[in-house]
Each structure stands twice: as C-alpha cells, then as structure tokens.
Write a structure and sequence with these properties.
alpha/beta, binds nicotinamide-adenine-dinucleotide
Length: 510
C-alpha cells in the first residue's frame, strides 16, 4: 500500500513542508534550486515550499508519460472502467483528507472544500462510463462489400495547467477524462496550493493506475513554457485568468498542440422586478461571497432592474452582518481568507477605488475582517456602480459585490452581452417567458434561471464564451471526450477476388 500524504490537522504548524514533484509513480524532489512559498492564508504564515520545475524536470515527466503510454492505451475499456470505479471509491473515502489540504492552502472553509471534492468526484463517476463514451459508429455495406466505421483514439501525452481556486476539482476535470480516454497526463498545478495534487497522485497509484500515467510537475512560468513547447505533448488544457489563457492558447497552438484555455469571468446576476426578493438576496449573498468570491462562477455584478433595486440592496445589506468570516478549519466559518496577502490588498483596493469613482459603499469588508495576520477581508457591497468604473470592468475575484441599476430588461441584457467575458450569468424572475427569452438572447456559456452558480453537472460540459474561453472545447462532459481523443475513420473491405479490378478513377460508393 502506498503511504498517503497526511492531511493537515490544524494547518498552524510553523514548520515548512517541502512539496515536490510526482514523476514515474513517486515523489521526486526538485533539482532546479528554485522554490515558491505556500501559505496558510488563515494565519498568514508560510506552511510550505513548493519545488519549481526546470525544463529538464518537465521533460522527465513527459518521458515517464511517454514510456507508460503504449501499455496504458492498450489497456482494455473494461479494465479502465474497473480502475475508475476503484479510483472513485478511494477518492470518496479520502474526500475529507483532500478537502483539508484545500482549506489549509487555499483558505476556503472546509464545507466548501468538501463541496469542491464532491463536484470533482462527479467527473470521476462520469469517466467510469468510458466504454460507452468511446463507442464509435459503423456503416455496414457503405459500398458493395465495403464497411466504414469511426473510432476515437487517445491524443497521447496531454497536460493540464490549473488555477489556485479549485486545486482538486479543476485537475479532476482534466485528468479523469484524459486518462479514461487512454492518454497519459502531466499536471502543472497552481504553485499557490500544490499539495492536493500530490495526494491525488498517491490515491491514483493506490487505486492501481500504472506509474507514469499521471505525473505532477510543480512550477511556474518556466514549467508552463516547457509544457507548451515540448514536442512530446499533444494537447494542453488550461484554466486560469484571461491574459494567461490567451497566452497559453497562442503559444500552445503555435507549437502544434490542441489547446483548450478557459479564462476569467465577470458573472452578472440579473434580478427582474417580479423576482422573489428574499430568494434573490439569499442567492446573491451565497454566490457573491462563497469561497470569498474566488470562484470563476461567482456572481460579481448584480443587475437590479427597475424598482427591485432598493428592496434588493436592503435585503442583501441585512444579511451581510450574519456572514461568519473566519479560519476555514473552524466549524461555523462560512467564508475564509483570500489566497495571498497581495490578492487581499488588491481586492480591498476596489472598495476605495469604487467610492472614488462614484459608487456608494453599502458594506465595507475592510472594517469587518477578523483580527490577526490572516489574509482576511469581510464582505463588501458597492451600489450605484456603472460600467465605466474599474470595480465593474475588472475581474476582482474577491468578496466585493457590485450593484448596477438598470431601467429595463433590454438594458440589463446589453450589459451582459457587451461585457468582454461570457462565462456564467443568472436571471431571477417568476416569468417563464422572460426566462426563455433570456436564454435565447444572452451571450454566455452557462446560464442559470433562478440558479446563481450554474456549474453544469458532469455529463454536460463546462465553459464560457468570449474572453472566458480560447479554443473550441469546453471542459469535462462529452466535449472532454472529444478533446482528449482523435477521430479515425476506417474504410474496410475483405478479400473478394470476384470484385478485384484496377480502377484509376476516384472511388465511388456503389
Ligand atoms: P492564473 O492565470 O494566474 O494562473 C493559472 C495557472 O497559470 C497557474 O498554474 C499558474 O502557475 C500559471 N501561470 C500564471 N502566470 C503565468 C505566466 N505568466 N505564464 C505562464 N503560466 C502562468 O490564475 P489563478 O490566479 O491561479 O486563478 C484565478 C483565475 O482563474 C481567475 O481569473 C478565474 O476566473 C480563473 N478561473 C477560470 C475558470 C473557468 O472555468 N473559466 C475556473 C477557475 C478559475
């Protein structure tokens, strides 16, 4: 049995843990001489030092994956499905261990971290159906004595580059379908919260995944560029901010790779005058401040249409003092700290900046953050925000919710459609006709109707439009099966001397 990484118990240990790579089925200490700090954001102390890979270390991971590829892609669908059922059981059994790493390094509260793992598990469950998902098509007698059929084969060695905000789930979006499809995988997790990737590797080994099929290179831009330029990697999945997503797409495709790069977001929640104000206020608070707003599907703009604005802002304001901000390990905490001190300070700057540009501060999170050295910020609400303000234009990625007042439905939809991002959007209304029109009109990849964070279930695919996605494929679900495989069409005839002739004409189907 593999020795599994110990989940952090309190996350307050002053000792600094080294966080290495995982190559060829084992932890491998980095040799680049470079490392990055990992913090426990709840206490503001460094808890780990993550090795940052060199080009040679990325190559070692790719070579390990290449060696494992012939055996893994030849593994039967039945065995792959059986293995994925074992993976599912093991991850389910260790879900709290995984979640504790997320809380210790990202800061999200433990219940939220458990939710992240649960949503990732759904993608593993989807991958258990790989025999059905990889079924091809067959046309008997396409021409006389000729059959035609399509199959999908793995791309080969594929890589995933992931953001800090979902250190377990987003990698699961990638490695589960990629490996189920017969690929070998190299993961480059966020250097801010890298430990979950090592427990993931250990659990996969424990479940029986052959060495080399899943590798982890810890690192920064050096490792990312080495992945993008490596001739042995056929496809790259990326999730992160828009500027980096654009860079990954441009560089990866220039190096001949298939690339899907999911970027940032500015998700609007439109509340129509007929909506249930109490329900909309609950949803806005949950979706605006859950995970301290560090979700790509967080609601960051509330568009209040017509006379719903005053009662809605009032209903949200009433709820804010009740949001319990604290260490994510403490039972009862509802919102944890931000991931780093720099990020907390940047998010806080939008409160003052918004006021300077004419917004009204309804709640100021700088005044309600818990004491201590943790990277905390309380919940903030800005009213009378307009599209010219930085608080509206930028992806703040923190617990700052902006209210924009719109006169009409059309004005509200134009705001969403004119925004450069197009990840998620929500509409709150009691009017079925308006909801149906909204789904027709709106330019975004994921739409919620009275649902504030419409993250699709694992058997649909996840992805935005516009600057929220570079490339064609969305993540997980059916589109991931397509992304991680290449199509092949076979035209087949078995020897029949009676029909054999020399014919220099273009083949005709008769
Ligand atoms: P980020 O773009 O800073 O980092 C993502 C990954 O890119 C990390 O692995 C990081 O090491 C790497 N990276 C960072 N700078 C780089 C550079 N200059 N060159 C090459 N690689 C680099 O994103 P983040 O701060 O970790 O995550 C938050 C962002 O991710 C937000 O914008 C959020 O909206 C987005 N996100 C999007 C989705 C989605 O599905 N669309 C999901 C989760 C997060």
């Amino acid at each position: 049995m593999t020795e599994l990484a110990e989940a952090p118990t309190e996350g307050r240990d002053a000792t600094i843990t080294r966080i290495p790579h995982w190559i060829d089925g084992a932890r491998v200490d980095g040799t680049s001489g470079r490392s990055g700090p990992v913090y426990n954001p709840a206490v503001g102390l460094q808890s780990g030092a993550v090795d940052l890979a060199s080009v040679e270390e990325v190559d070692a991971a790719v070579q390990s994956a290449k060696r494992a590829l012939p055996g893994w892609r030849a593994t039967s669908l039945a065995k792959r499905a059986e293995l994925f059922f074992a993976i599912r059981e093991l991850f389910h059994a260790h879900r709290e261990d995984l979640a504790k790493f997320l809380t210790a390094e990202h800061g999200k509260v433990l219940t939220d971290a458990m939710g992240e793992v649960a949503r990732g598990l759904e993608v593993i469950e989807f991958a258990c159906g790989i025999p059905t998902l990889l079924k091809g098509e067959f046309s008997e007698q396409a021409s006389t004595g000729v059959d035609v059929y399509s199959i999908r084969q793995p791309v080969g060695v594929v890589a995933g580059i992931t953001p800090f905000n979902f250190p377990a789930m987003v990698p699961m979006w990638m490695w589960a379908p990629a490996i189920a499809c017969g690929n070998c995988f190299v993961l480059k997790p966020s250097e801010k919260d890298p430990s979950a990737s090592l427990l993931t590797a250990e659990l996969l080994k424990e479940a029986g995944l052959p060495d080399g099929v899943f590798n982890v290179v810890q690192g920064d831009k050096v490792a990312v560029d080495a992945i993008l330029e490596h001739p042995g990697i056929g496809a790259v999945s990326f999730v992160g901010s828009t500027p980096i997503a654009r860079y990954i797409y441009e560089s990866g495709t220039r190096h001949g790779k298939r690339v899907q790069a999911l970027g940032g977001a500015k998700n609007h929640m439109i509340v129509l005058p007929d909506a249930d104000v109490e329900m909309a206020a609950d949803a806005a608070v949950s979706a605006g401040y859950g995970s301290a707003g560090e979700r790509c599907m967080a609601v960051s703009v509330l568009v209040a249409v017509g006379d719903v604005a005053d009662p809605l802002v009032e209903a949200i304001k009433e709820r804010l003092p009740k949001v319990k901000v604290g260490d994510g390990m403490e039972p009862g905490s509802e919102m944890g700290p931000l991931v780093t001190r720099e990020h907390r300070d940047k998010v806080a700057s939008y409160i003052e900046g918004g006021a300077g540009q004419g917004a009204r501060i309804v709640a100021d999170g700088r005044e309600t953050a818990p004491d201590g050295d943790g990277f905390f910020l309380g919940v903030s609400l800005l009213d009378d925000v307009t599209p010219e303000m930085d608080a509206y234009k930028d992806e703040i990625f923190g617990p700052v919710l902006s209210v924009v007042r719109a006169k009409t439905y059309d004005e509200a939809v134009s705001l969403v459609n004119d925004n450069p991002y197009g990840n998620g959007v929500a509409l709150f209304t009691r009017d079925g006709g308006a909801a149906r029109q909204f789904q027709f009109d709106v330019n975004a990849g994921m739409v919620g109707i009275n649902v504030p964070i419409p993250v699709p279930v694992a058997y649909y695919s996840f992805g935005g439009w516009k600057a929220s996605l570079f490339g064609d494929s969305h993540a997980y679900g059916p589109e991931s099966i397509h992304f991680y495989t290449k199509g092949k069409v076979v035209t087949s005839r078995w020897p029949d001397p009676a029909t054999s002739t020399v014919d220099l004409g273009f083949p005709q189907t008769r």
